[in-house]
């Protein structure tokens, strides 16, 4: 197999990679928003619980979670498909990171914004929805792009739970073709091709956020 | 194949034997990543051409999975005559991978420093090197303690990947037990809990450091 | 409904493989291939089970995957060992294989046994994590400092071709398949090669079999009945031949229980 | 919650009595009493940290006092609650403008009208345009805050507050973040509001403005109201030594 | 690189000729000429955006001009280079102080002495203590900038610049970020520096200060030097309409 053939072969796994990313985002985005906001607003024991959930998903190695969810949970009667397990574990892991971006963005907002809203007689929930979130989301878009890339790269682990993603394809080709130079270079290139555009978009957003705010906010 | 608590406790000492490798790799890689990342970012700022080149290097590193990078370093480089021991490849691989992220963290940290600090240093006749070492870096450290700590946790969590290049770290020793005894749930859960414990300890340390830094120079 | 009833009524059996020729893998057209998948097909087809589905997992994930009901049987060259017997229900053995070592072409380090490697601390040895060869090598005295364990067969081979290790060990079947692969240059089978010598002075050999879940013994018994028929009518020999095994490697007619108890 | 206050007086816009406020252990307000008649214009001044901002932030409930009562248009402020009604009847202009950066100037002015006062979109736009014209930045209505100069931003913030048609306006050093030339733009708008009879409570060090429009000047120090007098008297013969010192310092740096 | 400039004159501290400076397409300086004698005290004023900061930042090379030459103490400034020597001979004080927040006041004053001028640690500390005493904050030497008031911070920044023993001091609106009460502290220090005969170029709107110490007032508008006169003449009879207008606005907001 020539190098381009290897690359095409690896890209046969793209559909699975893309599906895991897509379903993963369905878990990640709501989790990040809900838990980021909860962590920002709660105090005391409630905040501790919220933080514990976030830390669990953020701090456990994904590779172990995948294994446990796929191979160990069925013993306790919880059976999920490989795709569900992958999307859930990768999605919530990234969502855990995302929640921190949401919280940081909310905290970084000038408190004067909330005060101005209060002084205008807006309800707290309205202020969150109309004033804080729009600004926070604009501010954290670059971070979110990074998380999307993390998610794409995280899918390299799903071959562990039998899904035929790009890394899996690379291993499969390695099975037919003992050509480590071609295959591992191809693997590197394949992910670069998928992720680099997202990186570029992220950079662009970063610059735009910087300009729109008149100054750079360090998250 | 129920979860056997007695067995889980019995294997803890064996797994802890691999702890020192895991910690050694994590610490060395964190230091390496910070050093390479800082160099990348400072070089990026040093000129227009260097800027574009470093930007691309950083984006390339960030756009490919750590697994693919490790495979590449471990299996491909020897074909070009570079055969490094597994442990060195592991530390180098994680250092390079996370340097791409830390470079971004340093960028944000440096950008957040008021432009006047550069001006003041220049106006006092400090050289570029002195400015970075004595004026910018110490302030940057304070800005980035939190995100940098998060990446150190990530480095720790990434050490299980080194199993693929035969570094005897904790997850690998967990799998060894699993393949000896054919009990998977216990070693993986034990390894997972140790990781969770380590990750949370590091996060807590970082938080402590952060509050100390903030208390020292509260503006 | 037991697994046996389900397999027969749905006419489908799901097998787990670790994607390794000649044991169990997916061929270039995406169909199940390899010695054990062929055997499973030959055994179940006359019973009306027309469909053999493949799930590919890492070797180390095969047993957990079976226990977690991710598939109905492991058909991927698993050896019968007493410890594994505690977790899964093996069929009667089908093949009997010794360990084989692969080395760089010309065997520059002159490796002829596990003990040769153990005796020279400059030599590095590689095996697949969880494989019997890795354990045999350790039992034969190769210390941890000389042993590298890799995630899968390809990595292990890549470690040899890239010069990271001086020798690797597989079952004889895998080794001959690897050596005959036109894509791999520069390595050869160390010959002769002595594996782990047991207390009784004999070389340790492995017996491969198909594995079922422990409470699926009815399915296993059905399989064993059919296996005996195939051994008798010559179909078994054809499947061996098709997958590149020699007659020497046919297991003697013994029962799984003898191997599980460690008698042999 | 209204013990300490006399019965509600229709002529009073804002009443405060016995306000005490602590931040942790630090006491920022000490027993402050204040009565502001409808249409009255009050200027509050005093050294940095004397509690001026804290006082006016308490008046519309942005800070809660641990002791004392506040009544706005006869309604008592409930501590810790979301006093929406009262907040809507008091406009506030901040030192740092606090415009919403993701909304255009017009949207800044209509947001609370539509979402808090349930006006129709059309009505809100009409009112917003009216007040933007009033502060002379109607031509900037479509721009985003970041595209405006400081003076224009502050005028937009004033228009935004006016759109709620508040009975009373609070200003917290509205010109101190501005360049010298822009200060005048904003002061002009404030003078014209004062001339229209708006109730105003204004923290400022612009003594020219104070002299021109204030009915009463309140001088604070260390959380207390130390002196309270009409401007003629305050500037010419401050009663306390602290106010005297303050005036000396604030006026000495400029020479005319 | 010195075409356009007359031969070096030992009596001139700073000479600039034909300076033009663009930010992208926007021209911030238009053909600016300036000669400052040793010991002369210059005040630069003018409306916001007129290029005052840009001009003085050019003088010590913080900005590079696309056209024109600058000579400091007879040495030409090389554009784009790190003119360390020249920078060390000019002290600069910024509007926002720009003290290094992670260093104590004393460390702020010694860092550049040790690293840039290679003085010994002991000598640097001695010099630093001398100048800190000079600006009357020797008792704050061990504190961090965040623990000081604005006026103290600015005085520390002045001491830091003085420690380099510069021939010339540049000030960019040194008091405009300060509270009214603190302005005086800083102006007092500057007046005493002026009395000692230090060459000073100062952007400021403190007209009292200008009147008191300036030998010459330079009025800028739209990147040009529009008017240049001794203070008596500038304040009583500005020659251009633009300067007249500016003076009106800047003086009208305060009343005495
Ligand atoms: N959120 C807070 N937490 C702790 N202390 C506070 C807080 N807000 C204000 N203070 C303290 O309360 C005191 C009064 O503050 P306030 O802002 O009311 O002063 P001010 O008169 O407005 O001063 P300035 O002229 O500087 O604005 C100050 O000493 C200040 O440090
Ligand atoms: N780094 C920059 N990039 C683009 N434009 C700039 C930059 N610095 C200054 N300018 C522009 O150059 C012009 C002159 O700026 P400068 O800061 O010199 O004005 P100034 O007279 O000091 O005003 P102020 O009184 O507000 O400080 C302004 O229009 C400003 O917008
Ligand atoms: Mg205030
Ligand atoms: Mg300026």
Summarize this structure briefly.
Chains D, E: Residues 14-247 form the ABC transporter domain. Chain A is mainly alpha-helical.
Helix content of chain C: 25-40%
What share of residues of chain B is helical?
A: over 70%
CATH superfamily of chain B: MetI-like
Number of domains of chain B: 1
Report on the biggest sheet of chain B.
Answer: none
Order of helices and strands of chain C: HEEEHEHEHEEEHEHEHEHEEHHH
Using only C-alpha atoms, the radius of gyration of chain B works out to 21 Å
Ranges of chain C with pLDDT <50 over ≥5 residues? Answer: none
CATH architecture of chain B: Orthogonal Bundle
Task: Kindly name the structural category of chain C.
Answer: alpha/beta
**What separation lies between the terminal Cα atoms of chain C?**
36 Å
Quaternary organisation of the protein chains = heteropentamer
**Roughly what fraction of the amino acids of chain C lie in strands?**
15-25%
What is the CATH T-level topology of chain B?
MetI-like fold
pLDDT averaged residue by residue of chain C: 88
Give the tally of β-strands of chain B.
0
Assign the structural class of chain B, choosing from mainly alpha, mainly beta, alpha/beta, alpha+beta, or little secondary structure: mainly alpha
Silhouette of chain B:
flat
Q: H/E series of chain B, N to C?
A: HHHHHHHHHH
Radius of gyration of chain C from CA coordinates? 18 Å
Transmembrane segments (chain A): 20-38, 45-69, 75-94, 144-163, 183-205
InterPro entries (chain A): AA_ABC_transptr_permease_3TM (IPR010065), ArtM/GltK/GlnP/TcyL/YhdX-like (IPR043429), MetI-like (IPR000515), MetI-like_sf (IPR035906)
Pfam families (chain A): BPD_transp_1
Subcellular location (chain A): Cell inner membrane; Cell membrane
Secondary structure: elements and pairs:
The complex is a heteropentamer, with one copy of chain A (about 220 residues), one copy of chain B (about 220 residues), one copy of chain C (about 260 residues) and two copies of chain D (about 260 residues).
Chain A: H1 3-11, H2 14-41, H3 44-59, H4 62-72, H5 82-108, H6 111-119, H7 124-154, H8 166-176, H9 180-213
Helix pairs in contact in A: 1-8, 1-9, 2-3, 2-5, 3-5, 4-5, 5-7, 6-7, 7-9, 8-9
Chain B: H1 5-10, H2 12-17, H3 19-45, H4 48-62, H5 66-76, H6 86-111, H7 115-123, H8 128-158, H9 170-181, H10 185-216
Chain D: E1 12-23, E2 26-37, E3 41-45, H1 52-59, E4 67-72, E5 75-76, H2 84-88, E6 90-93, H3 105-116, H4 121-134, H5 150-162, E7 168-172, H6 180-195, E8 199-203, H7 207-213, E9 216-221, E10 224-229, H8 231-236, H9 241-252
Parallel strand pairs in D: 3-8, 3-9, 6-7, 7-8
Antiparallel strand pairs in D: 1-2, 1-4, 4-5, 9-10
Helix pairs in contact in D: 3-4, 3-5, 4-5, 5-6
The structure holds adenosine-5'-triphosphate (ATP) (2 copies) and magnesium ion (MG) (2 copies).
One adenosine-5'-triphosphate (ATP) binds near residues 26, 50, 51 and 52 of chain E.
